[in-house]
Amino acid sequence: MGNVDVESLFKYAMKGQWREALEAYKENPEALLEAKITKAKDTVLHIAAYLGQTCFVTSVLDEIDKEVSMNALHMQNSKGNTPLHLAAELGNVELCRDIARRDLALVFCRNLHGESPLFLTAVHGNTDAFFCLQGYSQDDSLARKTNGDTILHSTIASEYFGLALQIIELYPNLVNSVNQDGLSPLHILAGKPNCFKSSTRMELLQIDLYSTDNQRLSGSFVDEFEEINDARYDEVETTNHCPMNYGTCTSSLSLLKSIEQEQAEKAKKARKEKKEQQIPPNWAAMIRFLTHMMKILLVICGVGASWIGKIQRRKVKHILAKHVMNELIQRTSECIYDYTNTSKGSINISNDKENGGIENIRKSTMSPILIAAKMGVTEMVEKILDTNPVAIQDVDSDNKNVVLLAIENRQPHVYSMLNKKSLVKDSAFRQVDNQGNSALHLAATYRSHRPWRVPGAAMQMQWEYKWYKLVKNSMPPNFYERYNKSGKTAKQLFIGTHERLAKEGGKWLTKTSESCSVVAALVATVAFTTSTAIPGGPDQETGYPLFQGKPAFNLFAIASLVALCSSVTALVLFLSILTSRFQEKDFAVDLPRKLLLGLTTLFTSIASVLVSFCAGHFFIVEDQLKYAVYPIYAATCLPVSFFAFVQLPLYFDLSLAMIRKVPQRSYKVQSHELHHY
After folding, report:
1. Any idea what the Cα angle at residue 427 is, between residues 406 and 416, rounded to 5°?
2. Sign of the C-alpha dihedral, residues 420, 425, 426, 428?
3. Is the Cβ–Cβ distance between 104 and 70 less than 8 Å?
4. What pLDDT is recorded for position 248?
5. What residue spans do the ANK repeats cover (predicted)?
6. Which class does domain 356-497 fall in?
């Protein structure tokens, strides 16, 4: 076939002229069906499958010779994908069914990455297409690719947890499978802290909506998800175009649903009993009413609907991820730990038969509980310890156990949970790594990234010292401070590794205090001058102010006094910061408290000066203009309001830091760390 015909086919496909393309196929089927019309070596059937042109593909296959059409369906592009691969990738159930029933061998065809069409449906979360192709073959090999990744690895990595739950029921042996990097599905899930509530950052209003939007909301999403699946599978099972072996799917889904309902009923009963004990009935109704009113207000404001929906989807994802975690841990509880080589504390999944190379990789891989501790997935660490208490003995290649990793990576939620377990505190807290570092040494060591959810070096330094003191105070009573192999104590490590951070924090505090002290001095000067001036002057006979007793005069007197006192106080506080020695312990309470009080008094002094000015100016305005100047006074206060609004995040961070003993971790820096395991 000449180049003109290939160009014509390409134009037909790009312009959507499928009738013309079909006519061209009828004229020269053998040559045209094998024509590569793109640089990626796609045929027109590839393009049609990618664009979802099911009718065109079906017409071609029905009207062309069967042998020729089968050869066309087996044509692969530069990536090794057949038209069925593309249909599976896009989730085109009708096209997947039509192609698979014509030639079952296409279901087993793999691309250059070793991916079957079934694998691609799972990778892209196409549940309908997945069960359509899964009905043609339950061969486990279709669920794997050449690098050892399975469909369970892929669905968890892509956060399709609903499909992952169904895959666990259909392919239970995939739970313990590992890829070439030695990672099991539980390893993958442990490296996704954003899928769990304990590792998700939420603001105050988000937390309120998340908590008050009770389990009934989440349960409704899960139940609706399962009911849709059940209805779809029942419908597919009675379809004449599909094989009649969907009984396994339906039974497994029914079992899954019964488990979910049983867990939901238990949780609902527990919550009901807890509420009956803690909250009076009328309070509960009032809380629900206020929650609904808050949602309505957010929707009226224009951002509430999408925002609330985002929180709901996040909660459903957390619930499904936790269900997947429970299933994975429960199914691996009897075979995941084999301490024939306890010196490395590695995991050995006994029922997964891989070659020796994979076994060596697996022995050097961190166990799921260690990854979860490092990433801050508190739910997984707690569940594994409850199911397999022996997991507390797991260590990585540096001989660090779950406690040391949680402390080193600044995971306060995991650490607090471990600190409450007596078994852990009696043994794991005394562990040292290969360098002789204890838990206190690792708490004192500062690394390059900034882990805490606060801006600025000064506040990072504050939380670093609080973290060090928290770990030190929670050590066992007979714990003694020791030297590591470098001959350093934890205190020496803290001073050495935090030296640069302390300097950066000191520079920021110095610069901030210098700027604020200048403003405070100016305000104090103005406030002193204002406080000595009397609006309208004194009475010549009595010496008392002429406007004494009037509301505006009293407001002027009080505001000018407050402005003077608060500005002088702010000046003293900022000067005390400038004269500080900036030692490590000063960043914990002393310096942040002075900064918070200094900013508060400075803001108060500026506001008081403006109030005193407006009150004094009120006496020189004519009576007919007094009501007209109110908007001008309000506009004068706008800069102060804007300044307060801008400083609110800093105020909140400083205030919460003074209240909280356990800092909050930031998880943004860890999204790329899994491949290092």
Report:
1. 35
2. positive
3. no
4. 40
5. 79-97
6. mainly alpha
